[in-house]
Amino acid sequence: MLKAGVLGAGHLGKIHLRLLQQSEKYELVGFYDPDKENAQKVVAEFGYTYFETIEALVAAVDVVDIVTPTLSHYDCAVKAIINKKHIFIEKPIANTVEEAEAIIKLADEHRVKGQVGHVERFNPAFTAVKDNFNNPMFIEAHRLAEFNPRGTDVPVVLDLMIHDIDAILSVVNSKVKKVSSSGVSVISHSPDIANARLVFENGCVANLTASRISLKNMRKSRFFQRDAYISVDFLEKKVEVVKMKEAPETPGDFDMILQNAEGERKQIYFENPEIQANNAILDELESFADAINNNTTPIVSLHQGTEALRVAKQIIEAFNHN
Fold it and tell me: Cα 245 vs. chain centroid, distance in angstroms?
């Protein structure tokens, strides 16, 4: 079992602590949180071991799980890596692309592994259809959330949209060529609602909308590709896969047949991938343990986390140019 310690015992940090303690792939050693009052409450309620300093925690573990505010990700990662500890780091990987690239370089130098907490990659709806993606050329993503003061210290792009950015980058095998966007600050000092259009070198276009001032929650993406339409509902954990194939010479009474202007006939059929219920956060943490134990590349690598951040920053920069 890998010895793991958590930096940060806020809302998400407490979830990580609970799941690491449950996991059969980790031994939870303890946690560090700079807010001593909060730390004492966590100890009193759950009985986890509290470390007085980051350095003491890092020294006692194999894996450092960084669940602190984004501004501190870089400093925490450096302290772990220079002590040759593997790092799981919550999204976004860092506050700036430069910090993220420095983390990658340092991890390579010290030969440690890192994974970024883009949890939607482990959403059972997304994993159920990932083998169906084949060169999608148009994508629409909507991520709407009811207002919650937690997270409003960063733009909605880094808070919410980055989930969809990472998911899209993982299925489009091409580089982003052009970014345009608009964002509006309604209640926060940074944009609360944003729309972005990504154009890829292969011609794929992705439209993303994120809002944290919605009256209802929605996390849905739609992917269009040759002969297929794939819908992923990350919130309800449901999928739709509609495909087309050459129509048979003599269709059955219940076959759905379409004919285009050129006279080509296609048959529409539906696939129903099996969705396996899971705990996505536990799965991502345990997949990282597997990557360490088997010396394989983590499912969401530091490089991928950096690319998601790079595109997110380009979207934010484009706010000012429209």
Answer: 33
The runs of H, that is alpha helices, within the chain are 11-22, 36-46, 54-59, 73-81, 97-110, 124-129, 156, 162-171, 280-294, 302-319
**Amino acid (one-letter) located at 41:** K
Distance CA 131, CA 222 (A): 15
What are the pLDDT digits (tens) for 251-305? 777 777 777 777 787 888 888 899 999 999 999 999 999 999 999 999 999 999 9
With beta carbons less than 8 A apart as the criterion, state whether 170 and 304 touch. Answer: yes
CA angle 147, 153, 158 (to 5 degrees): 85
The answer to whether residues 94 and 70 touch, using CB atoms and an 8 Å cutoff, is yes
User: What is the pTM for the complete model shown?
Assistant: 0.93
CA distance 256 to 144: 34
CATH homologous superfamily of 121-275+310-319 equals: Dihydrodipicolinate Reductase; domain 2 (3.30.360.10)
